Amino acid sequence: MTGKPKILLIGMGGVGSIAAYSLTYTNKSDLTVVVRSEYNTLKTTGFEIKSIDYGHIESFKPYKITNSISDAVSENGGGGDGFEYIIITTKNIPDITPIETILEQCYDDESENKSTIVLLQNGFGIEKSILKKYKNANVISIVTMISSSLINNVVNHVGSEFAKVGYFPNGNLSSKEQELSCFKLIELYSNEKNKIEYDPDVKWTRWRKLMYNATINPISTLTDCDIGRLNIFGGDETLLRPSMIEIINIAKSDGCELPYDAIDSLINSDPGVYYSPSMLVDRRKGNYVEYINILGNALDVANENNIEAPILKTMFWLLRCRQMKLMEEKGRFELPEIRPGPEDGFEISYKW
């Protein structure tokens, strides 16, 4: 790989758009962006960005935009080693599109110059399926605290970009190799407007992020209330605080001590703004939500370690039922006209 390092960024939602803009602003890499549903808009008029860090950008259009991963790969020499980094910012929804199926189109685990996989996504345990399939993969975690959403082609970025970059340990690779790939990405990503730092403890950081994502996100989604309204309507002490304590207890059973004093700052995050978390935005758009990697994987740890988490468990099953209903509405499966009983042994047959 010569010249500027080539980066493939997949997904241009609220978080992905700011990541793409930061990389473009820093101008140390050759960036190609894959975007599907908003491809025509991004290609012609671009996204408007209202950013606490970068100000008002009337039209942001990355230099290289494609609407498919295969096109991005072919335009960069073909094969699975054309990019130094593959940054995935799409929603992590394994019951709809497993990450491995995305990587099949752009990653070659046997290549001498194989890409480094970067997961700029929410959730816990999101690396496991990748490392199971790709034994030699170098997988980086980016956890970002950003408060950015994309609605009607406008990116509203209300929380300064702060990202922690670390690696998911792979015993087939040296820790030195994995660390170096993190520091190089930090160099490509960092500028005077954002704060990007190395993360020596990805596991702890992802548990810490779940204090927000596994509580505020699903509660906002299930109540159709932004954070401000949750505060005003009485959700702080009845829903938010007890669910955050459940996450703290599960994380502790997994060897990670999380700070109780973070609860108040999370409950009162984004002051002065009626901010709608990303999962709520997806629900309002009629999109699938990433409840498995945010709630399900945490509950797996709770079950393994005999930790009670009644609020998180209830939210998981409410979101699962909603997700299944959405799959039915989108035609992913059909139910029989006559409701089957338990004795019928009925199983859903998916069309894809």
SSE class: alpha/beta
Q: Into which percentage range does the β-strand content fall?
A: 15-25%
For the terminal residues, how far apart are their CA atoms? 37 Å
Shape: globular
| CATH architectural category of the largest domain | 3-Layer(aba) Sandwich
The order of strands across the largest sheet is 5-2-1-6-7-8-11-12
CATH top level assignment of the largest domain: Alpha Beta
What is CATH's topology name of the largest domain? Rossmann fold
Query: What is the CATH H-level superfamily of the largest domain?
Result: NAD(P)-binding Rossmann-like Domain
Q: Quick one: biggest sheet?
A: 8 strands, mixed
Return Rg in Å: 20 Å
Unreliable residue runs: none
The total beta strand count reads 12
N to C succession of SSEs: EHEHEEEHEHEHEEEEHEHHHHHHHH
Give the % helix: 40-55%
Average residue pLDDT: 94
Domain module tally:
2
Helix count equals 14
Domain Ketopantoate reductase C-terminal: 201-320
Pfam family, one: ApbA_C
Protein name: 2-dehydropantoate 2-reductase
Domain Ketopantoate reductase N-terminal: 7-169
